[in-house]
Design goal:
This protein is α+β, with helices and mostly antiparallel strands and about 500 residues long. The protein is built from eight helices and 14 strands. About 10% of the residues have low confidence.
């Protein structure tokens, strides 16, 4: 179980589900708040309209009538209405209204009853144009819905209603049905100059019902939607990761069988998984080539070592049995060849292990002059055209080894002359070794840098080396950020050029 939920597929599914859950919860809260605000605004407009209809009727009454007992008030269950004077006395009430709170007066049974201060609304809002200068003491712009007491100067004119509406939340019971209401309060002045307050309510049942219905729908739909999102993500990731599982299983099989010729399946798509498969196969190809090269190296090294060892052993056995027949010069030559071969193999082993050259500043011209001066046994003299001042960074010992290998190769193939030169070409210092031999065929100019490779005319182990010198030289050049190439001279001989970055 733990492994199942630690997979990439499970993590992706859980992550997507969590993100969607957070987004849906935030969106749901925003929707509910927006819905509540909109429906509250709709209730405000309904309550304001009902209050203003009653206020207009009051303002339009003739001055010789007593209008409040004859007012046509809306049904109490739809729009409970109270009319009070500025002292909070109840003047008119919707028929059937049994209880009310949050409006002007809590008393509903006796017209003319005094204001009950316990019925103050818990929340009020004031809208419209208010010209009050802030001289009042309450937070509703200086107007007290229960009664102003002093007949302030901000009362509406005779026969008019105030442009300002105040809102509050409350409750009412009409015809045995209780509910939450939004109350609007509007001031009006009748034709006798008396200012009254009209409190009209609009039911909040629709608001509460819509909010509750929406919340329930969201609560019921959220788990279903999250299950769908999680399931779809699970299926999509399983399909997307199926090639990865194929790559993993094939790599496990390759590891178990040690068969590097096998390859992982490559999807036909052009996505990251396909690129991973191609890169894996390229890595397997390189690994297979490296292992094969290592096998050939071991086989060739064993073969090359057996020859001088067998020859040396034969000579020593003959010398032991017949001292007069001991070929001392041949034994010494075989020993030297064996020593050189062991040194080449050790050098290749260090290079294959990733040994990096030291960063020593070396004058390549001086190095050439010094190394050539120590080659007293060369059967063909080496002409040197190299002055000092051509500095490079690298290992002096490894660079000397490259020069020695190039000179040894030129000595074996030259007809009568070998030349070593150093020059500057742009940002490169070029060491060139040329001979006047038969040269290297163009088709073989890359193959001669492979290990244990000797061309047909150089296969004699008595005259040639083991085929490691040029391979070592190129490896050293590449590890010095340089190149080693072979071309031809105007006379038809071979021209080897080592290019290394110049140091200013």
């Amino acid at each position: 179980m733990r492994g199942r939920f630690s997979s990439v597929r499970a993590k992706a599914s859980l992550g997507a589900t969590a993100v969607v859950a957070v987004a849906l919860v935030a969106a749901g809260i925003a929707v509910l708040l927006s819905l509540r605000v909109n429906l509250t605004g709709q209730a405000d407009r309904e309550a304001d309209r009902a209050a203003r209809e009653v206020a207009l009727e009051i303002a339009a009454q003739a001055p010789d009538r007593t209008p409040y007992a004859k007012l046509e008030l809306p049904d109490a269950e739809d729009h409970p209405v109270q009319v009070t004077d500025e002292d909070g006395r109840l003047l008119a009430l919707s028929e059937g209204l049994e209880r009310i709170s949050g409006s002007g007066v809590a008393t509903v049974g006796a017209v003319g009853a005094a204001r009950n201060t316990a019925s103050e609304p818990t929340a009020t809002a004031r809208t419209g144009d208010d010209d009050d200068d802030g001289g009042g003491d309450d937070d509703s712009g200086g107007k007290d819905r229960g009664g102003k007491g002093d007949g302030g100067d901000d009362d509406p004119a005779v026969g008019e209603i105030d442009d300002t509406t105040e809102y509050s939340d409350g409750s009412a019971t009409a015809d045995g049905h209780a509910g939450e209401y939004r109350f609007a309060t509007v001031e009006a002045t009748d034709r006798t100059g008396r200012t009254v307050l009209v409190h009209a309510g609009a039911s909040l049942a629709d608001r509460q019902s819509a909010v509750n219905t929406t919340a329930v729908a969201m609560l019921l739909g959220l788990p279903v939607l999250l299950l769908i999102v999680g399931g779809v993500t699970w299926l999509v990731t399983r399909r997307a990761l199926r090639p990865v599982e194929g790559i993993r299983s094939e790599m496990a099989a390759i590891t178990a069988s040690e068969d590097l010729s096998r390859r992982v399946p490559e999807p036909a798509t052009h996505d990251e998984v396909a690129r991973l498969a191609r890169t894996t196969n390229e890595t397997l190809t390189a690994l297979e080539a490296a292992v094969e090269r290592q096998r050939r190296f071991v086989a060739d090294a064993s073969h090359e070592l057996r020859s001088p060892i067998a020859s040396l052993r034969t000579q020593l056995e003959v010398g032991h049995a017949h001292p007069g027949l001991l070929d001392v010069p041949g034994a010494v030559a075989d020993t030297v060849r064996l020593q050189q071969l062991a040194g080449d193999l050790l050098m290749l082993a260090r290079l294959d292990a990733g040994e990096r050259p030291g960063l020593t500043r070396t004058d390549l011209g001086a190095l050439v002059r010094e190394e050539v001066s120590q080659r007293a046994t060369d059967h063909i003299p080496v002409a040197v055209r190299a002055r000092e001042g051509f500095d490079v960074l690298g290992s002096r010992g490894q660079l000397a080894r490259v020069l020695g290998n190039l000179l040894d190769n030129a000595q074996r193939h030259a007809a009568g002359s070998v030349e070593a030169s150093v020059r500057r070409v742009g940002a490169w210092v070029v060491l060139a070794v040329a001979d006047d031999g038969t040269g290297v065929p163009e088709a073989e100019r890359e193959r001669i840098f492979e290990r244990f490779v000797r061309l047909d005319d150089a296969r004699s182990r008595d005259d040639g080396g083991a085929g490691l010198g040029l391979a070592i030289a190129r490896d050293v050049a590449e590890r010095h950020d340089g190149t080693l190439t072979v071309g031809g001279t105007p006379s038809g001989g071979a021209l080897f050029e080592l290019r290394l970055p110049a140091v200013v």
